[in-house]
Amino acid sequence: MRPMRTSELMNKKLVVRPAEENADASADASAKPKCEACRVPNDKGIDLAFAFQPIVDVRTGAAYAHEALVRGPNGEGAASVLAQVDDANRYHFDQRCRTVAIEQAASLNMSGFLSINFMPNAVYQPEACIRSTFEAAEKFQFASDRIIFETVEGENVISRSHLVDIFRAYRRFGFQTAIDDFGAGYSGLTLLAEFQPDLIKLDMELVRGIDTDSVRQSIARGVLSMCRDLGIRVIAEGIETRGERDFFAAHGVSLMQGYFFARPEFRSIPASTEDWLLK
């Protein structure tokens, strides 16, 4: 099925919400980034590329999605790239990450979904800031409904209400949404009370050694039960051993990510192995 054209998406989905839906908007306005970065020329372009790591469905042995992990143009680590991001170039960096990830995924003939990390503080108005994503999807013939947007509710999120507004807008646009590092620091239950994403990624510190740790097992079972009730799919992130994989599989988790399956590969898609399929 062809990707929906940008003009069609603009007409169908980029609509201004009625005034009654924005009754509380003024209360949060001061907490939101000021929408002017897209009007400022991008004089500080950051060279970047991506490595891709699969999110494996162990029921099928195939990749459900691939997460795009930012790297330098020659494969330098993410830290060297992120160190160049500041208030002046954050918006353009976030936009460039989206378009480059889509371009590289399309060039690699990626199957399944593409998971893109985004910076909530770089999104000023979701309806305006999403246009370049749609344009890239159309240009590179990558269906926009195969995109997942994931983020962490971290200390640098200006306000939870702004993050929730972004997630709700992205859902209207037809994207999947995901909360990363769930259970670590700021990513927790209060956010879920306001918005239920399509996916959550369990923090790898909860995953580590879970097959031999009764405390982690108890916590994980509670999270999994809650997510089943809310209709949220869980990704067990940071799987490094067969025991960790088998614990989550035994508790109904089929989506997993980690070095046990594949390390990120620069400008490439890792090949599947027999460990991807649960036997």
Q: What is this entry, summarized?
A:
The chain is α/β, with parallel strands linked by helices and 279 residues long.
- Please summarize the sheet with the most strands: 8 strands, mixed, barrel
At the fourth level of CATH, the homologous superfamily is: EAL domain
- The share of residues in extended strands comes to 15-25%
Overall shape: globular
- CATH class, named Alpha Beta
Walkthrough of the structure:
- This protein has one domain: TIM Barrel (Alpha-Beta Barrel).
- It is 35% helix and 18% strand.
- The protein has helices at residues 6-13, 25-29, 78-82, 90-107, 126-129, 131-139, 160-172, 189-194, 204-207, 214-230, 242-250; strands at 49-57, 62-71, 113-117, 147-151, 176-182, 199-202, 233-237, 255-257, 265-266.
- Strands 1-2-3-4-5-6-7-8 form an 8-stranded mixed β-barrel.
- Mean pLDDT is 87; it is low at 1-31.
Write the layout of secondary structure elements.
Elements: H1 6-13, H2 25-29, E1 49-57, E2 62-71, H3 78-82, H4 90-107, E3 113-117, H5 126-129, H6 131-139, E4 147-151, H7 160-172, E5 176-182, H8 189-194, E6 199-202, H9 204-207, H10 214-230, E7 233-237, H11 242-250, E8 255-257, E9 265-266
Parallel strand pairs: 2-3, 3-4, 4-5, 5-6, 6-7, 7-8
Antiparallel strand pairs: 1-2, 1-8, 1-9
Helix pairs in contact: 4-6
